[in-house]
Amino acid sequence: MDRFVYLLLCFIPAFLPAQSPEAIWGKRLSVSNPIFSFGKNLAIVDMDYDADGFLYAVGFNRATLLDGGSPVHGPYSGAQTGFVLKMDTDGEILWHRRLTMGVMKALDVEGGALYVAGDVASAEYGPLQLEADGTGTVTTIFANGYYDGFVARYSLAGELSWARTFGGADDDDVFEKGDRIEDLAVSSSGQVYITGSYFKQFRVAGELVFEETSDRGKTFFLAALDGAGALVWARDIKSPLPTDGGNAEGLHLAATAQGAAVAIAYSPGGLLINGEILLNDNGGGDRGALLAHYSTAGSLLWHRNLEPELGLMVPLGLGTASDGQIVVAFAHERQVLIDEAEELEYLQQEDGLLKTGLAAFNGSGQLLWAKSIFASDASISVHPDGDIFLGAAAFRTGVQLGNGIALDFPGDGAVSLWARFSKGGEALWAHRPGLLAAAPFSTNHFVLASLDKQLYAAANFNTTLDFGGNIILDNGYESPDFDAFYVVRIDDSNLNALPLATVQPLSVYPNPARGAVWADLPEGMALRLYRLDGQLVWAGQALAGHQRLEFGPQVPGLYFLKGQGQSGAYLQPLSLVR
After folding, report:
1. 347, 373 Cβ separation under 8 angstroms
2. Which residues of the chain have pLDDT under 70?
3. pLDDT, tens digit, for every residue of 377-392?
4. Which sequence ranges are marked TM in the entry (predicted)?
């Protein structure tokens, strides 16, 4: 067989057209009296599921919460109401509990219990009133200062077991400095990990744990609690700067077999770790991220520094697989250095906008792969077998996901996208809802993959969306000026049984070519140029028709030009000469 034809056949499986997963059900949550403030009327901030597949969600609403137009609970009162609810596998709400005047942050289901974490802001909102069961009984807790963190434990039937606050009294009301819990994770043994930041003092049950004499607003902490909410141990990492230039906060947690992994955001002032100063010194980056792994006893096992070339970096999510692999997602503007040695693989050309980085490490902290997806406002969920599910917003006309998979988007607004990646970081599929009206907008994305790889996807939206499977949702208002919240359940198990699709040729000339070709394209498509070894050397978008493609200077040799359109995949061998 001709060598070139053989290589072409070897490339075809990697360039099959992306298939669409199937939506099983979808629901719209909205509020009775919305305000013009996208993402502020209501949101689900975290979800999890139990051993029977029931779904739990924590979030907030600013008016009466509506499920498909019907009130979920009784009359609403107050500026902001947190909630915890349970849904069955068909999306029906089984119970709902109010957590009035608190700021909801995280939820985890483990060992037959439901744990919720967030903030109590007594000075701003008043005390936190937690609905203890379905009878209207309320438990009230107060912050010691301006802001305190809280953790509450519920049974899976919605009965409150206990609630604890964490923080000190020396807060700064004027500059809104206090103690905050940003995330929690519960291990299979029942150890509860919490992370966030503290100001001046961090107290548990009135006992002083940490004290910081500087005036910096945020000092990172990680703490382990037992099943009753009592402190087991706590660790903090401080900055060498005494001002807000030395802020650091834990944003995301994941329980591991060895302990807990935590994603930390820190300011340019750096961090003091083991007596040494770790700095974000990669050019003009003004905020770095640190991935740290702690043992069950609180020992720092290893840490990895992620530095932006320019601008900020914010951890967006964290997940672990059963073999110990850890995946961290983060927002970034420019190229990122990992421990000043490795860079992200870019799937598109730099555009200076916020994008989502994904980096995978083994249990010992060795970097396995890292890449940048040109979408933002992202959430990830890592399945125990290592597959990674992504939900995000596209602020671009096209997003490349890798492995020959791409999505096209309208030029204006922000549209949801979902994708699944293998443990090795290869894109398996990507999908977005169909748009049936103008002015698309989506934010506050969240995804959760169940054990059977059903994907729960959620986000705010303001226009009619077609999720497939005859599931069409509108925002429930007469105007796109207000946003609702969708929750859909997506099944991609059917993708494994789909037949191989035909890869179509492209009309490209001249061939051989010198840096540029003319192409007669049957449809608009994403285009990518690969070397024979599979390395991507050029990517672009093109409209249908007679188009000129300029590849720039390339090493002479044989290449593959791959196209991805709505009708499928295209592949054309191409020879480039000087």
Report:
1. yes
2. 1-20, 77-79, 174, 282-285, 493-503, 532-535
3. 999 999 999 999 999 9
4. none
